[in-house]
Amino acid sequence: MTHPIACDLLVDGIGRLYTCHRPGDEKGPRRGPDALSDVGLVEDAAVAAYQGEIVAVGPQDEVHRAVRLLPGGAYLDAGGRAVVPGFVDPHTHAVFGRSRPEEFGRRLVGESYQSIAASGGGIRASVRDFRRRDRRELVTLTRGRLREALRSGTTTIEVKSGYGLELEAELKALRVLRDLSGESGLPRIVPTCLAAHEFPDEYRDRRDAYVDLVCETILPQAVAEGLAERVDVFCEPGVYTVEQARRVLSRGMELGLDACIHADELEGGGGSELAAELGAASADHLGAIAPEGIEALAAAPTVGVLLPGTIFSLGLDRFAPARTMIEAGVAVALATDFNPGSNYCSSIPLTMAIACTRMHLHPHETLVMATIQAAWALRRPDSVGSLRVGKRCDLLVLRTETIDELVQHMGADEIETVVQDGRIVAD
Ligand code: NIG
Ligand code: FE
């Protein structure tokens, strides 16, 4: 018998392989409870890759018959445990200087995120700190955080600028991401320009002039240097109005960027409807989404990215109405929102646990939301988010036999090995 397919990585002995693939996934993100809970399970399975790409995946005996491991290739025996796709985190703010632990305590004994922000804390405090730091130091700080995310199973991560709020400082954040892109031992980075994260102090009384700066100078410059793939804006009462957010996103789209939006996070007011109107790639947060917003997203290509870690870390109760959104046909995904203030957590497994307990999701739903659905939010469904021939070989060998245990064992380190692009990057 011939073994026609050469591979340089073979993972076998997989008790349960959660491929997270379902026929039709290539056409659009999943909608409805049945699709969302389909983890594409294969028992007694194996996966093979060549030069970072999956060349065979399925029942172990079939994969063994189909492939030949090249001399010097890597071999991993999963020992009967579970394997899942590498997680895709479609919303983080990982480029910053110091974090803001003092605000955490202040919030929990009574102050609100908004009142701390109004008194000069919050994002603006991070901006003052960020502007002072040089790029090399920021590269070192960000590298450490991204390594940590990879250890927690994140193999693709979106990272936003947004603590610069002026041309050079925003470009500095995006250049930090470019410096780190492709570095081994780090997740694959998807960079987003969030120059419209807040209004800088020097523009607080002439906000539209800052929107002009973002639209006419910062976004075009970021695009000219090839530093961003996406544009984002914080649309929330007291920050960017729907009208200002529309200008920023439309301009970014005109420049060729994918749009995403911080929408209906705390009080809400039209951000989800705007995302749907523009056909944005994602609308993120959605804790305060209105019925009209749910209806609009259900009819749009836009993925609703839920960030329950932030509501948990802020000590609030207003989680996104995930079950209602799923029933209504909104395509939902999951992300951490890792940032220096409202949620210092880069762990997808912990975020899955919070999603299950506070938004009443099943562990299987959260797995799909953190893989193929998140890949759709980043408009990368062809390369990441599920284990299929032709996709990047990003996978996690768990220490447990099921994904349910990883979610239930909150805060425990249940990831044995991380494989990215067919190479073992954390073990
Ligand atoms: O997604 N909402 C705006 N941005 C972040 C918070 C960033 C921060 O507090 O530094 C968020 O929650
Ligand atoms: Fe955010």
Characterise the protein shown here.
Helix content is 37%, strand content 24%. It starts with a strand and ends with a strand. With 427 residues, it is an alpha/beta fold. Strands 1, 2, 3, 4, 5, 14, 15 and 16 form an eight-stranded mixed beta sheet that branches. The mean pLDDT is 97. The protein contains 17 helices and 16 strands. The chain has two domains: 5-85 and 386-426, Roll (Urease, subunit C, domain 1), CATH 2.30.40.10; 87-377, Metal-dependent hydrolases (TIM Barrel), CATH 3.20.20. It is globular and about 70 Å long. The protein has helices at 33-36, 60-66, 101-108, 113-118, 123-132, 135-151, 167-180, 207-224, 242-254, 271-278, 291-298, 308-313, 322-328, 348-359, 363-369, 372-377, 403-408; strands at 5-18, 41-50, 53-59, 67-77, 82-85, 87-89, 154-160, 188-196, 230-235, 258-263, 282-285, 303-306, 332-334, 395-398, 415-420, 423-426. The site of fe (iii) ion (FE) has 5 residues, from loops. N-(iminomethyl)-L-glutamic acid is lined by residues 93, 122-123, 126, 234, 262, 265, 310, 337, 339-342.
Task: Annotate the secondary structure layout.
Elements: E1 5-18, H1 33-36, E2 41-50, E3 53-59, H2 60-66, E4 67-77, E5 82-85, E6 87-89, H3 101-108, H4 113-118, H5 123-132, H6 135-151, E7 154-160, H7 167-180, E8 188-196, H8 207-224, E9 230-235, H9 242-254, E10 258-263, H10 271-278, E11 282-285, H11 291-298, E12 303-306, H12 308-313, H13 322-328, E13 332-334, H14 348-359, H15 363-369, H16 372-377, E14 395-398, H17 403-408, E15 415-420, E16 423-426
Parallel strand pairs: 1-4, 1-5, 6-7, 7-8, 8-9, 9-10, 10-11, 11-12, 12-13
Antiparallel strand pairs: 1-2, 2-3, 5-14, 14-15, 15-16
Helix pairs in contact: 6-7, 7-8, 8-9, 10-11
The structure holds N-(iminomethyl)-L-glutamic acid (NIG) and fe (iii) ion.
